[in-house]
Amino acid sequence: xxxxxxxxxxxxxxxxxxxxxxxxxxxxxxxxxxxxxxxxxxxxxxxxxxxxxxxxxxxxxxxxxxxxxxxxxxxxxxxxxxxxxxxxxxxxxxxxxxxxxxxxxxxxxxxxxxxxxxxxxxxxxxxxxxxxxxxxxxxxxxxxxxxxxxxxxxxxxxxxxxxxxxxxxxxxxxxxxxxxxxxxxxxxxxxxxxxxxxxxxxxxxxxxxxxxxxxxxxxxxxxxxxxxxxxxxxxxxxxxxxxxxxxxxxxxxxxxxxxxxxxxxxxxxxxxxxxxxxxxxxxxxxxxxxxxxxxxxxxxxxxxxxxxxxxxxxxxxxxxxxxxxxxxxxxxxxxxxxxxxxxxxxxxxxxxxxxxxxxxxxxxxxxxxxxxxxxxxxxxxxxxxxxxxxxxxxxxxxxxxxxxxxxxxx
Length: 410
What we know:
This protein has helices spanning about 1-30, 40-65, 70-90, 90-105, 110-135, 145-160, 165-190, 195-215, 215-220, 250-275, 275-285, 290-295, 300-325, 335-345, 350-370, 375-390, 405-410, and strands at about 225, 230-235, 240-245, 325. The protein contains 17 helices and 4 strands. The protein folds into 2 domains: about 1-85, no CATH class; about 95-410, ABC transporter involved in vitamin B12 uptake, BtuC (Orthogonal Bundle), CATH 1.10.3470. A hairpin with a 5-residue loop joins strand 2 and strand 3. The chain has a two-stranded antiparallel sheet with strand order 1-4. A two-stranded antiparallel ribbon has the order 2-3. The chain is mostly helical. Helix 6 (about 145-160) runs antiparallel to helix 7 (about 165-190) and helix 11 (about 275-285) crosses helix 13 (about 300-325). Helices cover about 75% and strands about 5% of the residues.
C-alpha cells in the first residue's frame, strides 16, 4: 500500500521527464543529414531507455516504501562486516598494496590502458587541487581550469623559446599559476556563494580568451607545437663513467612520471588537510561568520586555499603540455572545469580517496561505454545520475564534513 502512495507522488514527474527525453532524442536521431525525417529509430531507443528507467523507478519506489528491506538488510550486514574486517588491517598495509599495484600496472597492460591511466592521474592532481578550494575551504570555483592552462603555457613558452627542461620548469609553472591565482583571488574572494562562482567563471573565461587572442605570445588558436617531453639522466660506463640524457618517449615511463606527481599531490593535500591551516579552512567551510568571530583571518586563508589549488593545477598543466607536446586554448574550456568539479562532488568533497575514485570513474566510464558509440555519453550520464541518487554525499564521503554556511542560509 505504501508503494502505491509513493507512486502517486512521483508518477507525474517521471512521465513528464520521459516525454521530455523523447522530445530531446527525436532531433538527435530522427533528423538525417539529407533532410529526411524518421521516427522509428528514436522510438526504439526511447523504448529501451523507458524499460531501463522504469526498472530503476520501481526499485526506487520499493526502496522508499521499505519493500526492499528483506534484501537490503542482509546486504547491509555483510557490507558492515566487511568494512569492520578491513578496518582491522592497518592503513599503511592498504596503502602499500595500492602502491605496489600502481607500480606493476604498466607491466600487465598495453598502451591504451596506460594512456587512460595517465589521464586519470592528471585529473587526480586537478581534482585534489580543486578539493582544497571547494572541499576544504568551501568556495565554489567554476574557472579552475584556467590555472591548468597557465601551467601548460608556462612550460610550453619557456621550453620553446628558452629551452628550459621540464624538471626545471615544473616548479616555475606551479609558482606562476599560484601568482595568477593570487591576482584573480584578491578582488574576488570577498564574495560568497553564487556570486563567487559567477566571478570565478568570468575570470576563467578571461584567461582562456587571453590565451586565444594574444597571437604574439601564445600563437592564438593555432597553439604551440614541438614541446619537449620530460628528460632523464642515467649513468653510462661505455667509455668510462659519464651521465647520458634521454627524452622520455615511452608511454609507460610517462605513466611513472604522472604517478610520481599524483603521489606528491596526494601527500601534500593530506598534510594540508590535517594541518592547522586545514582546520582553519574547514572552519570557514562550515560557517565563515563564526570562524571570523573566533579570530580566523578568513580572507587570507581563503586566498591561500585558492593559491594552493592554482599551484596544483599549474603543475598538472606543465605535465599535460609535456605529454601532448602541443597546447591550445581549446583544451582549457569551461567544460573541463565542470568535469573536475564533478569529480570532486561525485567522489566526496574533502575526501582524498573519494576524489581519486571520482576521477577514475569519470575518465574510465566513458571508455567502458565507448562500444555504444553515439549513446555512450547518454549511458554515462544515466550511470552518474543513478550514482548521485543513491550516494548524494559522494562515493567515499569525508569523515569531517558538515553543512556550509551558504547552504544553511539557502
